[in-house]
C-alpha cells in the first residue's frame, strides 16, 4: 500500500468526516466501512487512518470518546462536531466542483 | 475531549496509553478478522501488524499530529539533553566548570570596570565637569570666576584640617573649604537643610558647615534635628546648616576623605597669585568644548605676568572622571583584556569538547536519522544540548561572579575609587547573557551542523571505530594551539607583573622603616599655639620623648616621606642667572630638627647635619638631598653655596648649604626621588610681619618621628608625653613607618594576585584542553598503536610518540603566544616598573611552564597508549 498522496490525504479527511457524520464510529469500524462502501477501490492503509483521525480531532472537526463495544471491549469512538459538519459541507461542495471540472475536461469529444 | 492540547501536555502517560490501546484494538480486530478467514493466529497477527505499517512509526506519526507544536518538542529535547549530559558526567562537569570560570571572571571584572570606568560619577551631568591640571592661586581663580565666558559655574576648594573639640580628646579631621559655587557646579541637592550661600564667604559669616552623610551618621547618629547644632573647630563655633545625601562624596580625588565642608573665604586673597593651594572644579556650558573652555581660562590669566603666561601655555583642562580613575584605568583595562582571553580559552575548550562528543555520538545520530528524525531535529537537539550546558555554566558563573565581586570589595586596596558602591547590576548581567549566547552559538553550531549532515551509511558502518577525518584533527589541533598561545600571553603577563612587583619590593626606601613610629603633633588651639612658644615646646618635647623608655632617638619634621606633602617650591641659587618666572628650579620643602636624619636612618653624605646651635642662633642653613645636589651642582660640591626661596628680592634671605643627605622615596614608591631641601626649625618672633621664608620656619604642626625598640608601646607613651605638656595639643595619624611602607604594596599585591589567578585558571583550562585532545587522539589511533607495538615498538616508544604530539601542539601554541605577548606587552609598559616588556627571564619561565604542563597533561594518555595491547587493538573491529 503506497503512502497516500496529498490529494488522497485531503480526500481521506473528507471520507472520514462523512462516515462519522452518519454515526459515531471507532477507527476499526471506519476502516471496515470504507472498504465495504467503496468496494475496495479506495485503498486506505490502516496505518494512515489513525494519524488522520487524530489530526481531525486536533483541529476540532471530530470529537472522541471511549465507549464499550458490543463485545465488551473498550474502543475510541469518533463523532462529528458542529464545526466538522460545516467543514464537511464546504468540502463536499468543493469536491463537487472539482469533480465536475475534471469530468468536463475528460468527456470532451475527440475530433 | 476538549482542551486536547493541554491534556497532551499534562497527562502525557495517559494519552500515550490511550494511543496504544486504540492501535491495539485495531490490530486485535484485524487479527480476529484474518483468523476467521483461515489464517493461523501467528500469521494473522503478523499480517495485521504489517497492515498497520510499523507500530512505532504510527505512534510517532500520531504523536506528531498531537504535538502541542514547539513547546512540547522543546521540553522533550531539553529533558533528553539533560539525560544525555548526565550520562557523561566527566564531559559535562568539565564543560560547565570551564564555562562558569570564564563567564564568572568576566562578570566580576565587568562589574568593576562598569562601576569604576563606565558608570557616571554621582553628580548631575558629570560629563561636563572639568578640572585644571594642578592647583590654582586664589587671585587667578577669582579672575576666572569673574571673567569666564564658557562656564556655567566654577568653584574652588582648599584643604582644611581643623581640630574638632567637644569630645574627650581633640580630633583632627579632614575637611574642605569650598566656595558656594561648588554645590551649584556639582548639582546635588542636600538631604537636609541647605548649602552655603555666596554671602557667607566672608569673615564672620562663614561659621557654617555642611556635613557629609557618613559624618552625620558618625557624629550625630543620624539625628534629624542636627540643623542648627554647633560644632567647635579650632575653638570657634560653627553651625550645622545642612547634610548631604549618602551618594555624595567630595572631592572625588585628592581629598577623598573630606567629611564636611565650610565656606571658603577669599576676600583677603584677591591679589594672591603665587600661593597655589586651590583646586578648581568647573562645569562647562552646554555645547562648549573642553578646548574652548581651556582657551577661555588661559586667556584670562595670560598677560598678568611672565610666570602666568608660561602657566597659561601649560594649562590643561581634564574631565573630572579622568582624574578620578587615573591610576586605575590602565590596570583595569588590562584585567579586562585578560578576562576576555580567558573566556576565549574557555570557549575553545568547550567547543573542542563538543566536537569530540559529536564525533562520538555520530552513530547515535545516524540511527536517529534512519529512524525518521529530521536532520533539523538532530541539529536542534545538539544546539539545545549546548544551550543547556551554557545556561548552567552561566548560572554558576553568575553566582561565582557575584561572590567574586563581594570578595573584591572586601579585600581590594583602598586606592580604588568608587569601590564602596560596587554591586552586581543589570548591565553586567546583560553582558553576561550576550557572552553566554555567543558562547552557545560558537560551541554548538559547528558540531551541530556536522551532525545534521552525517551520511547514515558511513556512520553505521560497524567497526573501524575511527570517524576521524584529517579536517577534524586539524580543527581540534588548531583549537588547542590557540589555547596555548593565549595561555602563554597570560602567563607572560602575570610573570611580568610578578617581576615588577618584586622589583618594587627590592626598592630601598632610603630610610629605616623598622622600629620607627610617627605621629602628627598640632599646636593650633593649644596653649602653645603662639608663634614664639612653638620652638621651645617642640624642643622640650623632643628632649622628653628621648628620655622615654625604649626610645633611641626622636626628632621632628614637617612632612615624612611617602605620605607627606610633595609640593615643589621654587628656589634660586646665588650667582646663577635669574630664571624666567615659573621656569626656575624647584625642590620639596622640608623642615627638620637636629637628629632627624639619624632617626630616620638616612645618611649624611657630605658636610653635616642640622644642629641645635643652628636653631639657637637662628643660623640660615639648609641641607639638600643627593638628587638636588646632582641636579643643580653636577660638577661641584654644593657645600657653602647659598640659595633662597624668597623671590630674588632685596630682602631675600639666603641659606647656606651645609650638608648633603641621602635620598628617600617620596610620594610614589616607584618614582625617582625629587630634590629636597631641609631647613632648620627656627624660633619665631611675635608680630613678625616679614614675608620671607624665615618667618615660616616654625609651623604649628610637625610630625614627630621616634626610633624605638618597641613601636607598639611607644605610640601611647609618646602621646601621653605630649598631653602632659599640653592638654589641648592634638596627636593625630600615629602609626609605624612600617605600616606606611606596607600600605604602598597593598594595591600592587592585589593586582598581582588577580593577574596571577587568571594565569593559573588559563593554565588549568589549557591543560584540560590538551589532555582531551591527546586522549582522543590516542583512542582514535588505537589500531595504529597496536600495529606499531606488534611491529616491535616498545612502551617507551609509544609514550614518546604521544608526548611528542602534545609538545608539538604546545610548542606551536607557545611560539604564537610569544609573538603576541611581545607585541602586546608594549602597551602595558606603563604598569611595569623595573622590568622590560621583553624580559627574557619571564618569557623563558613561561615557556618552561607551558612545556611542563603539556608534558604532564599528555602523560596519562601517553601511558594508555604505551599500554595498548596489540592483540586487543587489532581486534577492535
In brief:
Chain A is an alpha+beta fold and 111 residues long. Chain A has four helices and three strands.
Explain this structure to me?
The complex is a heterodimer of chains A (111) and B (877). Helix content of chain A is 59%, strand content 14%. Chain A has helices at residues 6-22, 27-37, 46-58, 82-106, and strands at 25-26, 62-68, 74-80. Chain A starts with 5 loop residues before the first helix and ends in a 5-residue tail after the last helix. Chain B has 877 residues and is of the alpha+beta class. Chain B has 27 helices and 25 strands. In chain B, the strands form three sheets. In chain B, strands 1, 2, 3, 4, 5, 6, 7, 8, 9, 10, 11, 12 and 13 form a 13-stranded mixed sheet that branches. In chain B, a hairpin with a 2-residue loop joins strand 9 (230-233) and strand 10 (236-243). The mean pLDDT of chain B is 80. The interface between A and B is medium-sized, with 23 and 23 residues.
Fold blueprint:
The complex is a heterodimer of chains A (111) and B (877).
Chain A: H1 6-22, E1 25-26, H2 27-37, H3 46-58, E2 62-68, E3 74-80, H4 82-106
Helix pairs in contact in A: 1-3, 1-4
Chain B: H1 4-10, H2 12-36, H3 41-52, H4 55-66, H5 69-87, H6 89-118, E1 129-132, E2 136-137, H7 138-147, E3 151-160, E4 163-165, E5 171-172, E6 175-178, H8 181-186, E7 192-193, E8 208-211, H9 213-220, E9 230-233, E10 236-243, E11 260-263, E12 276-284, H10 290-301, H11 306-314, E13 317-319, H12 320-360, H13 362-370, H14 375-411, H15 426-452, H16 456-460, H17 470-505, E14 516-522, H18 531-547, E15 551-557, E16 568-570, E17 572-573, E18 586-592, H19 596-600, E19 604-607, H20 612-616, E20 621-625, H21 626-632, E21 642-644, E22 655-661, E23 676-680, E24 701-708, H22 711-725, E25 730-736, H23 737-780, H24 782-790, H25 795-825, H26 840-866, H27 870-875
Parallel strand pairs in B: 6-11, 8-10, 18-23, 20-22
Antiparallel strand pairs in B: 1-12, 1-13, 2-12, 3-6, 3-12, 4-5, 4-9, 7-10, 8-11, 9-10, 14-24, 14-25, 15-24, 16-18, 17-21, 19-22, 20-23, 21-22
Helix pairs in contact in B: 2-3, 5-14, 6-12, 6-14, 6-15, 10-11, 12-15, 12-17, 12-23, 14-15, 17-23, 17-25, 17-26, 18-22, 23-26, 25-26
Amino acid at each position: 500500500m503506497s503512502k497516500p498522496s496529498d490529494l488522497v490525504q485531503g480526500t481521506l479527511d473528507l471520507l472520514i468526516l462523512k462516515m462519522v457524520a452518519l454515526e459515531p464510529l471507532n477507527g476499526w469500524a471506519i476502516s471496515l466501512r470504507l472498504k465495504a462502501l467503496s468496494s475496495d477501490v479506495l485503498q486506505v492503509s490502516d496505518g494512515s487512518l489513525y494519524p488522520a483521525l487524530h489530526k481531525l480531532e486536533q483541529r476540532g472537526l471530530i470529537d472522541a470518546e471511549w465507549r464499550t463495544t458490543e463485545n465488551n471491549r473498550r474502543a475510541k469512538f469518533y463523532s462529528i462536531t458542529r464545526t466538522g459538519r460545516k467543514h464537511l459541507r464546504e468540502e463536499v461542495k468543493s469536491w463537487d466542483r472539482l469533480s465536475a471540472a475534471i469530468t468536463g475536461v475528460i468527456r470532451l469529444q475527440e475530433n | 475531549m476538549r482542551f486536547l492540547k493541554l491534556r497532551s501536555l499534562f497527562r502525557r502517560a495517559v494519552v500515550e496509553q490511550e494511543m496504544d490501546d486504540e492501535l491495539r484494538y485495531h490490530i486485535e480486530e484485524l487479527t480476529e478478522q484474518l483468523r476467521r478467514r483461515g489464517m493461523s493466529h501467528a500469521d494473522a497477527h503478523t499480517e495485521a501488524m504489517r497492515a498497520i505499517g510499523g507500530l512505532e512509526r504510527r505512534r510517532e506519526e500520531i504523536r506528531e499530529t498531537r504535538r502541542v507544536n514547539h513547546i512540547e518538542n522543546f521540553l522533550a529535547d531539553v529533558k533528553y539533553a539533560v539525560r544525555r549530559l548526565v550520562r557523561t558526567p566527566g564531559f559535562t562537569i568539565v564543560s560547565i566548570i570551564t564555562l562558569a570560570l570564564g563567564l564568572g571572571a568576566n562578570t566580576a571584572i565587568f562589574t568593576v570596570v562598569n562601576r569604576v570606568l563606565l558608570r557616571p560619577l554621582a553628580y548631575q551631568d558629570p560629563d561636563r565637569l572639568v578640572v585644571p591640571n594642578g592647583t590654582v592661586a586664589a587671585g587667578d581663580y577669582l579672575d576666572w570666576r569673574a571673567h569666564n565666558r564658557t562656564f556655567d559655574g566654577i568653584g574652588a576648594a582648599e584643604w582644611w584640617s581643623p581640630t574638632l573639640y567637644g569630645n574627650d580628646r581633640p580630633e583632627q579631621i579632614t575637611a574642605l573649604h569650598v566656595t558656594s559655587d561648588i554645590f551649584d557646579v556639582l548639582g546635588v541637592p542636600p538631604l537636609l537643610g541647605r548649602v552655603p550661600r555666596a554671602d557667607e564667604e566672608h569673615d564672620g559669616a562663614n561659621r557654617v558647615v555642611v556635613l557629609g552623610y557618613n559624618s552625620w551618621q558618625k557624629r550625630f547618629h543620624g539625628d534629624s534635628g542636627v540643623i542648627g547644632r554647633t560644632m567647635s573647630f579650632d575653638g570657634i563655633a560653627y553651625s550645622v546648616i545642612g547634610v548631604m545625601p549618602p551618594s555624595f562624596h567630595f572631592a572625588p580625588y585628592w581629598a577623598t576623605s573630606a567629611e564636611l565642608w565650610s565656606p571658603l573665604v577669599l576676600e583677603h586673597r584677591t591679589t594672591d597669585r603665587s600661593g597655589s593651594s586651590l583646586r578648581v572644579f568647573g562645569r562647562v556650558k552646554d555645547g562648549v568644548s573642553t578646548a574652548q573652555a581651556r582657551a577661555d581660562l588661559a586667556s584670562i590669566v595670560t598677560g598678568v605676568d611672565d610666570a602666568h603666561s608660561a602657566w597659561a601655555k601649560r594649562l590643561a583642562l581634564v574631565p573630572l572622571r579622568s582624574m578620578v580613575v587615573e591610576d586605575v584605568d590602565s590596570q583595569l583595562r588590562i584585567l579586562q583584556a585578560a578576562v576576555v582571553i580567558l573566556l576565549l580559552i574557555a570557549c575553545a575548550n568547550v567547543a573542542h569538547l563538543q566536537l569530540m562528543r559529536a564525533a562520538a555520538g555520530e552513530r547515535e545520530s545516524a540511527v536517529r536519522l534512519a529512524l525518521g528524525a529530521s536532520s533539523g531535529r538532530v541539529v536542534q537537539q545538539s544546539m539545545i544540548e549546548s544551550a543547556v550546558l551554557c545556561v548552567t555554566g552561566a548560572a554558576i558563573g553568575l553566582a561565582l561572579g557575584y561572590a567574586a565581586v563581594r570578595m573584591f570589595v572586601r579585600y581590594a586596596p583602598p586606592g580604588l575609587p568608587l569601590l564602596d558602591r560596587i554591586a552586581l547590576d543589570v548591565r553586567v548581567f546583560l553582558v553576561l547573557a550576550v557572552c553566554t549566547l555567543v558562547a552557545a552559538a560558537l560551541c554548538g553550531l559547528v558540531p551541530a551542523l556536522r551532525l545534521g549532515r552525517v551520511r547514515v551509511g558511513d556512520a553505521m558502518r560497524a567497526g573501524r571505530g575511527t570517524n576521524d577525518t584529517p579536517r577534524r584533527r586539524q580543527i581540534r589541533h588548531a583549537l588547542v594551539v590557540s589555547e596555548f598561545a593565549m595561555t602563554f600571553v597570560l602567563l607572560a603577563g602575570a610573570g611580568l607583573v610578578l617581576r615588577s612587583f618584586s622589583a618594587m619590593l627590592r626598592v630601598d626606601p632610603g630610610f629605616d622603616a623598622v622600629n620607627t613610629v610617627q605621629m602628627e603633633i598640632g599646636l593650633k588651639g593649644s596653649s602653645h599655639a603662639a608663634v614664639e612658644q612653638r620652638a621651645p615646646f617642640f624642643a622640650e618635647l623632643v628632649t622628653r620623648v628621648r628620655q622615654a623608655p625604649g626610645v633611641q632617638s626622636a626628632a621632628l619634621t614637617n612632612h615624612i616621606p611617602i605620605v607627606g606633602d610633595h609640593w615643589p617650591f621654587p628656589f634660586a641659587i646665588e650667582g646663577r642667572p635669574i630664571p624666567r618666572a615659573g621656569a626656575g628650579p624647584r625642590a620639596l620643602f622640608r623642615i627638620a630638627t637636629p637628629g632627624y636624619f639619624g632617626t630616620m636612618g638616612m645618611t649624611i653624605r657630605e658636610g653635616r647635619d642640622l644642629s641645635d646651635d643652628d636653631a639657637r642662633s637662628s643660623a640660615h642653613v639648609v641641607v639638600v638631598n643627593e638628587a638636588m645636589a646632582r641636579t643643580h651642582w653636577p660638577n661641584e660640591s654644593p657645600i657653602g653655596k647659598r640659595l633662597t626661596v624668597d623671590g630674588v628680592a632685596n630682602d631675600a634671605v639666603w641659606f647656606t648649604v651645609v650638608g648633603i643627605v641621602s635620598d628617600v622615596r617620596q610620594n610614589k614608591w616607584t618614582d625617582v626621588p625629587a630634590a629636597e631641601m631641609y631647613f632648620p626649625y627656627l624660633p619665631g618672633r611675635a608680630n613678625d610681619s616679614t614675608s620671607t621664608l624665615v618667618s615660616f620656619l616654625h609651623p604649628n604642626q610637625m610630625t614627630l618621628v621616634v626610633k624605638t625598640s618597641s613601636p607598639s608601646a611607644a605610640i601611647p607613651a609618646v602621646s601621653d608625653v605630649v598631653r602632659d605638656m599640653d592638654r589641648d595639643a592634638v596627636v593625630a595619624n600615629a602609626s609605624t613607618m612600617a605600616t606606611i611602607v606596607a600600605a604602598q604594596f597593598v594595591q600592587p599585591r592585589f593586582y598581582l594576585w588577580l593577574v596571577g589567578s587568571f594565569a593559573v585558571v588559563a593554565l588549568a583550562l589549557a591543560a584540560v584542553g590538551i589532555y582531551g585532545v591527546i586522549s582522543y587522539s590516542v583512542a582514535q589511533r588505537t589500531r595504529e598503536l597496536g600495529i606499531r607495538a606488534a611491529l616491535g615498538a616498545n612502551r617507551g616508544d609509544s609514550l614518546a610518540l604521544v608526548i611528542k604530539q602534545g609538545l608539538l601542539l604546545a610548542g606551536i601554541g607557545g611560539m604564537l603566544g610569544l609573538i603576541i605577548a611581545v607585541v602586546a606587552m608594549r602597551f602595558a609598559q606603563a604598569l611595569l616598573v623595573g622590568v622590560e616588556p621583553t624580559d627574557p627571564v619571564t618569557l623563558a619561565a613561561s615557556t618552561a611552564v607551558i612545556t611542563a604542563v603539556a608534558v604532564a597533561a599528555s602523560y596519562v594518555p601517553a601511558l594508555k597508549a604505551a599500554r595498548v595491547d596489540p592483540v586487543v587493538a587489532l581486534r577492535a573491529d
